[in-house]
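Progress report, Aim 2. The chain analyzed during this reporting quarter is listed below.
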Amino acid sequence: MASDPERLQRFQREAQAVAALNHPNVVTIYAVEEAEGVQFITMELVEGKALTDLIPEHGQGLPELLRFGIPLADAISAAHQRGIVHRDLKPANVMVTTDGRLKVLDFGLAKLKPAGAVSTEATTVTAAELTARHSIIGTPSYMSPEQAEGKPVDHRTDIFSAGVILYEMATGRRPFRGDSVVTILSSIIKDTPPPVLEVKPGLPRELDRIITRCLAKDPARRYQSAQELRSDLEGVQQQAGSGVSPLRVAARALALRARRKRWWVAALVLAALMASLPYVLNRREPGVSRAGPAQVERTLSLTSSPGVEQYPSLSPDG
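Predicted structure tokens for the chain:
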């Protein structure tokens, strides 16, 4: 690459763009330098462990997953706002420092998004250029479907990769697996992984929805920005922090419905008694005829779903 002036300029330009990123969850690049004809990047030393080493066999707990997942989405969002697509997001490229801060590393495959629209003018393309355009770049298990097929990618390919990481953090296993690179890529393109809740019951349903949306095959069906992904993860964190789990919410709803049902049954019985009261008060001696309907001997259910009605009312004749 260093012998090709155009590719070298692109390398320097893209490396300098990454160096311009100033975010606490992105590794700091200090300089793009040259020494004795060798191009290299100088970046900060990050002491800690790779995220790969922090994912246990059965996945992380919800608090830890969100503690790392939210800053991951935040770092991706910061890069995308600068027009940078990482293209190689994976747990091995995410470090957690000794003080617990997450850092996204290795922007070596990062690519700047085009500043303007793609030109429609005809161009001469060599065989080498065509091969380079359709080459597969990235780590197979964390690629997006468009990456796996060698198609052009944009920021939404990073969102897919983030979904793969979140899935692995939640369950302890990768959503797309195979015995070879070919079978892994085929799985990414064709297969739908089991839902997170099926692999690890007990996690919030909202988290399952978030990860499923990230892993949509069609980029248009994924999150359209990492900021939106971050906001939804924060929503799960806030709900978890409130101490109210989805199971407890459901249990409370059932209990409330049961109480309402008992209340309405009591109200109907009371209404029946009130309706019969005039006849009891106006009873005459035996043998004397009296007008009016017979006393109420039984009650009937007036509705099909007791407990659901908000404001029932009785007709004047009961």
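Confidence is low (pLDDT under 50) at residues 115-134. Residues 5-112+129-243 form a domain with the Transferase(Phosphotransferase); domain 1 fold (CATH 1.10.510.10). These observations will guide the mutagenesis work planned for the next reporting period.
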